[in-house]
Amino acid sequence: MKSDTTKSAIRGSFFFYSFGIGSALPFIVIYFKDSLGFNEIQIGYLLMVRPLVAIMAQPFWSVLADTGGHRARLAFILAVIAGCLFPLHLIVKSILPLMAVTAFWSFFNAPLNTVNDALAFHYLGHHQRMRFANFRIFASFGWALAVILVGRLLDTIGIQWLFPFYTLGILIAAMFLWRIPENDKITWRQGLRAVRQLLTKRNVFFFLIAVFLFESANQMGYTYLSLYSRVLGASHIQVGLIWAVATIAEMFTMITFARIVRRINIKTVLVIGMLLTAARWFPFGLMNAWWQILPLQLLHAFTLTFGYIGAATFLDMESSQEIRFSAQAFYSTFILNSGAICGAFFGGQISYHHGYGSLYFISGSLAVIAAVVLILFVKTPHQHSS
Predict the structure, then answer these.
(1) Fewer CB atoms < 10 Å away: N or C end of the chain?
(2) CA distance 235 to 211
(3) In angstroms, rounded to a whole number, what is the distance separating the alpha carbons of residues 311 and 305?
(4) Cα 253 versus chain centre, distance
(5) What is residue 182's DSSP assignment?
(6) What mean pLDDT comes out for the span 258-268?
């Protein structure tokens, strides 16, 4: 019964956290541009703040979580604070105060996605880690519901309502996090020493380089997708539909992810994901109407499942049981956040000065380079024993 309760709580946390994020991230760039009048460069600076703060915040929170053994309880506190802070964005209208508010909120929001991933891996253990996608699919359900429902409502009641919708999702996620039991404790010295050993592995080093390039490519594409869709004539509900098509597509590969990895191994899965991501981004900037994006969004099934989940699974296979949370946190810190910083900054510069066609061509090129690095320098990891 305890195991069933934990499983349901983790799934509920995935669903409502992603509902909150899906209510905010696809639409906040539109709020910045249409309501506050910022250009792509200014938006890029704003969107850099969250991953910059996360680089400092995530190691701090992850070590604290591992050493105390209260990962879910800590995540509950962070979720409540983050949910309450996010609407402060409505109060300020100029860029510097907005950056300060975003930084304050990000310090508490930063580790929440990593917590969900690590709690799922911990629950599954060594022998069932390939079933991670069966948990992550609930995040897809939450995101899909948010981008469709909230996108429709924002056309009616105003885009500023994205902020309370985020708060609603995050606070409900916090309720589910509270139901998850404590984990084993380790000392912070043990955790840091084990993570340092992990990061000195040659295989992990080149893996991190490849996935950094891949994540940078995707963050350039994702960050400005909503603005690009608006340029092509999409309304808020149509922007939500564009995101929803991608999310629904990823559900099909998530359902079969464990079987796919058993047949073709995790490295091949990552390479396929990177090459299909390139095939998605290269023609993306050549569209003339928003609906032409929709078929390309189907390739998100491989971008997300083979890329994001594949990378998290790869690192988990390289990690020992006692540092599973810290390993995922360091992956998120050095890869996801660094990629988000580069994507926000360079994406803003490129789209403002050279247009969206150049932005998506460069995104596709980075995905190809990432695949080449993975093919040449990274080996399939062995199953790490618990």
Answers:
(1) N
(2) 33
(3) 9
(4) 17
(5) P
(6) 85
Nearest residue to 380 via CA among 232, 230, 258, 268: 268
pLDDT, mean over the chain: 86
Predicted pLDDT of residue 385: 44
State the Cα–Cα distance between residues 331 and 211, nearest whole angstrom: 10
Among 278, 276, 258, residue whose Cα is nearest residue 369: 278
Lowest pLDDT segment from 21-35, 53-67, 370-384: 53-67
CA distance 68 to 183: 8
Tell the CATH topology of 2-377.
Growth Hormone; Chain: A; (1.20.1250)
Distance CA 296, CA 246 (A): 9
Flag whether pLDDT at 136 surpasses 50: yes
Residue extents of the structural domains in the chain: 2-377
More confident residue, 323 or 158: 158
Three-class DSSP category at 232: coil
Which pLDDT band, with edges at 50, 70 and 90, does 377 fall under? very high
Total H helices, total E strands in the chain: 19, 0
Q: What is the mean pLDDT of residues 96-120?
A: 86
Q: How is the chain split among helix, strand and coil, in percent rounded to 5?
A: 85, 0, 15
Residue 364 has pLDDT above 90, yes or no: yes
Q: Which of 136, 236, 167 lies closest to 21 in space, CA to CA?
A: 167
Dist CA 137 CA 143 (whole Å): 10
